[in-house]
Amino acid sequence: MPRRHVLLFSALILLSACGPRIPGVGHVIVPAAAQGEVPAFAREGVASWYGPGFAGRLTASGEVFDPGQLTAAHRTLPFNTHLRVTNVANGRSVVVRINDRGPFKGARIIDLSRAAADRIGMIGSGTATVRLEPLNGVGDMLAAAADESLARYDVIARGKRAGELLLLSSASAGPVLVRVVGNQIAPEAGAELLLSAQLIRELGSSVRIEPAR
């Protein structure tokens, strides 16, 4: 293990020896018996799809929009986030990659390419109620948000176990060794990870979980 990781790991051990940590308001430390039973993030809402005329235009990520690719627009999720989108009415689903921003009409939560919309049977209706499930994991970019109540190297990570150690990095910094202290994040947070204010300043709001070495 690199020297920096050894030092950070030692610091975490010292922190844990200082006594039990009291989580901030809204934090839930899941008991061991309940770990693994926490459902993955899912959000339901109205989806639409890109109408004719958008082919060849630049998306917010800088890519050229291709209606034949399985891509989508979302207002806040990091680019390259992968989502399973399920049409609630018929149960059909498709995995898309976020490469654009939107939709900005009403309360719609995602705008699909024509190919993606066709996969879930919503071309004719134009809109459909869908369920979104982020599929990103180790090695993929995840949305992060700041939580002022967290200690510097503590994180709340959806789908992870309390006490688990993670290596986080971003395009600008890292890797940084952190400790998971909870896994419950309100959907309105729009994030898969809650980090301390110090780590958000260091890593930014798009963070990658590095593979274990």
Describe the structure.
With 213 residues, the protein is α/β, with parallel strands linked by helices. The protein has helices spanning 3-16, 114-119, 197-203, and strands at 43-49, 71-73, 82-87, 93-100, 110-112, 127-134, 141-146, 154-157, 165-169, 176-182, 193-195, 206-209. The protein has a six-stranded mixed β-barrel. It has a six-stranded mixed β-barrel with strand order 7-11-8-10-9-12. Strand 9 (165-169) and strand 10 form a beta hairpin. The longest helix has 14 residues, at 3-16. The protein is elongated, with a radius of gyration of 19 Å. It starts with a helix and ends with a strand. The relative contact order is 0.20. Residues 4-42 have low confidence and may be disordered.
Strand/helix succession? HEEEEEHEEEEEEHE
Count of runs of 4 or more consecutive helical residues: 3
Number of E-state strands: 12
Mean pLDDT: 77
Q: Describe the global form.
A: elongated
| Model regions low in confidence, pLDDT < 50 over at least 5 residues | 4-42
The SS-based structural class is alpha/beta
Concise summary:
It is built from three helices and twelve strands. The chain is an alpha/beta fold and 213 residues long.
Helix/strand layout:
Elements: H1 3-16, E1 43-49, E2 71-73, E3 82-87, E4 93-100, E5 110-112, H2 114-119, E6 127-134, E7 141-146, E8 154-157, E9 165-169, E10 176-182, E11 193-195, H3 197-203, E12 206-209
Parallel strand pairs: 1-5, 2-4, 7-11, 8-10
Antiparallel strand pairs: 1-6, 2-5, 3-4, 3-6, 7-12, 8-11, 9-10, 9-12
